[in-house]
Design brief:
Blueprint: E1 9-10, E2 17-22, E3 28-33, E4 37-42, E5 48-53, E6 59-64, E7 70-75, E8 79-84, E9 90-95, E10 102-107, E11 113-118, E12 122-127, E13 133-138, E14 144-149, E15 155-160, E16 164-169, E17 174-180, E18 186-191, E19 197-202, E20 207-211, E21 217-221, E22 231-237, E23 240-246, E24 251-256
Antiparallel strand pairs: 1-24, 2-3, 3-4, 4-5, 6-7, 7-8, 8-9, 10-11, 11-12, 12-13, 14-15, 15-16, 16-17, 18-19, 19-20, 20-21, 22-23, 23-24
């Protein structure tokens, strides 16, 4: 991690890898693929430990619960599936009531709320324990490709094909700011570990940083190719944050300072 050198290429899915997520303990990596499966891999060996099958169409996004015991995935089959990490068994299956493709999922920091976004421009909040839909957030003018909760859980950020990043007040169910400046679809977003900055990547390869309070721009970078900007996240190591990018067509992890 200190050098930023590529460590491994993990390419055992049968189709495009659309999303990856580290377990909070850092010992497991999950990946979601167009081959309709979710795979778990041991870190640092990279060996596949489990494969979750059940989606009937492309798997789009994957995330771990904050306690690391549950894996959530979503798919073009309009479902969100919660899996037991230890056993691989399905715990719940939630369905988008508009029968939309579900494009992204994210857990709140306390694990009590699950957010999902759809191809019909909406964002849904779910009670994790009951599986009940609690809120439907609308405001984007196109598909919502990515979601991220702030570290305190009070703000939800969403990135859309309408070229904007929106910040939502979770408690009051309203969007409070929109970050405008991208010139193509916003494909992935993440909060910094301290919560003050949002990093977003777009389909044109631009990486932009936004103030998480005001929605104002901070600094733009244009260093990644179109197909390598679909998933980004911070990994905190020894009090330093590294930006991680994943490629579209295979599991390729690139570390950037």
């Amino acid at each position: 991690m200190a050098t930023g050198r590529e460590q491994q290429i993990l390419g055992d899915h049968d189709d495009q890898v659309r999303s990856v997520a580290f377990c909070p303990d850092g010992k497991t990596l999950a990946s979601a693929s167009f081959d309709r499966t979710i795979r778990l891999r041991d870190i640092p060996s990279g060996r596949a430990s489990q494969t979750f099958s059940g989606h009937r169409d492309h798997a789009r996004s994957v995330a771990f619960s904050p306690d690391g015991k549950t894996v959530v995935s979503c798919s073009d089959d309009s479902t969100i599936r919660l899996w037991d990490k230890a056993t691989g068994r399905g715990r719940k299956t939630l369905r988008d009531r508009d029968d939309s493709r579900v494009l992204s999922v994210a857990f709140s920091p306390d694990g009590k709320t699950l957010a999902s976004s759809s191809s019909r421009n909406s964002i849904r909040l779910w009670d994790t324990a009951s599986g009940r839909e609690t809120r439907n957030l609308k405001g984007h003018g196109h598909k919502v490709w990515s979601l991220a909760f702030s570290p305190d859980g009070k703000t939800l950020a969403s990135g859309s094909a309408d070229y904007t990043v929106r910040l939502w007040d979770v408690d009051n169910r309203v969007w409070k700011d929109a970050a405008k400046g991208h010139s193509s679809r916003v494909k992935s977003i993440v909060f910094s570990p301290w919560g003050g900055t949002i990093v977003a990547t777009a389909q044109d390869g631009a990486v932009r940083r936004w103030d998480a309070v005001t929605g104002g721009p901070r600094r733009a970078r244009r260093e990644v190719s179109w197909y390598s900007c679909l998933q980004i996240f911070y990994l905190s190591t020894n009090d330093q944050s590294r930006l991680i990018e994943t490629a579209r067509f295979q599991m390729l992890l690139t570390l950037r300072p």
